[in-house]
Design goal:
The structure is a homodimer. Chain A is an alpha+beta fold. Helices cover about 20% and strands about 40% of the residues of chain A. The longest helix of chain A has 11 residues, at about 95-105.
């Protein structure tokens, strides 16, 4: 797998509001996957979660994650391996609003439940289909 | 997460040629994700790989996997946690042909590279959106 920095065409693909699946590890090291919104934020990938999610606890315990992003034609996909480099309480819901607007054009509807942001640093990536690289 | 057996509406969703992402563990326990074809085969999930893929080695070393399947409207998705219960060399390419026909309507085009099948036993599953359960 090539290491970062990610080339421009991959950056363009990751910049779209594409479906994505993230894998985290539970406390016994079992992989867990779930569909997720994400946002390419500089060279890192921002994800945002309800603070009560078990996944937050898992990611705080072990920050190693993987993410696969599917393009419109899902034979094109990009996978990254990375780790959580930064956590921040999303107190004003500014991060989830950025992400929600990116995907839906609207602010995030739930204004009451506390949320948290995690920035994933990309350690390695690999592309298939039109996103094939390296 | 509910345990198996999976209910009929989830079975119906998993029976479609939907996009999916599988997470496996590398030798250091880091999760790795990749888009994959799959086939619901009885109560298990069949995946099939080029025998030379690093992923095969990873899954033979540690059979714990996770899989997220996205529906047409990808706000509907199902995630399963499971483990590889059976391996079989796909000598006549019968398994990849079943899977390829399911997704494309055609036999798998590459008739030369050896492939292997893995059947994943579902330990737990969870649905969101129209597939929300439990």
């Amino acid at each position: 797998m090539p290491t970062t920095p990610i080339p421009d065409d991959l950056r363009a693909m990751l910049s779209k509001p594409n479906p994505a699946v993230i894998a985290t590890l539970n406390s016994s090291g079992q992989p867990i996957t779930v569909a997720t919104w994400y946002l390419l934020d500089g060279d890192r990938i921002l994800v945002n979660m309800d603070n009560t999610r078990k996944r937050v606890e898992h990611m705080r315990n072990d920050g190693r994650v993987a993410l696969t992003v599917l393009d419109d034609d899902w034979s094109t996909h990009v996978s990254v391996i990375g780790h959580v480099a930064e956590w921040k309480d999303d107190e004003a819901l500014a991060d989830i609003d950025r992400i929600s607007t990116h995907y839906t054009g609207h602010r995030y509807p739930n204004r009451t439940d506390p949320r948290v942001s995690a920035w994933i640093e990309i350690d390695r990536w690999h592309g298939w289909g039109k996103a094939k690289q390296g």
